[in-house]
Write a structure and sequence with these properties.
By secondary structure, the chain is mainly α. It contains 1 helix and no strands. Helix content is about 90%, strand content about 0%.
Length: about 70
């Protein structure tokens, strides 16, 4: 059902409606804002994965240090 949702014809119609609603002067700013939002979202997801990996590494180091001290 949603397979043909973003065909070139549909995207052209969506772009034309956005052009009518926002006008040619505000459309580049709107695109820039959407791009920055997507980039921020992607960086946020990437950052969460990096921080989880760092926490795992820190936990492993702590466990290794504790094991070395007890021997």
């Amino acid at each position: 059902m949603l397979d043909n949702l973003f065909t070139p014809t549909h995207l052209l119609i969506i772009f034309a409606i956005a052009l009518l609603i926002f006008g040619p002067s505000k459309l580049p700013g709107l695109g820039k804002g959407l791009g920055e939002a997507f980039r921020g979202f992607k960086d946020g997801i990437k950052g969460e994965g990096d921080s989880a990996a760092k926490q795992d590494n820190n936990a492993t180091r702590t466990t290794d240090a504790t094991t070395a001290q007890t021997k």
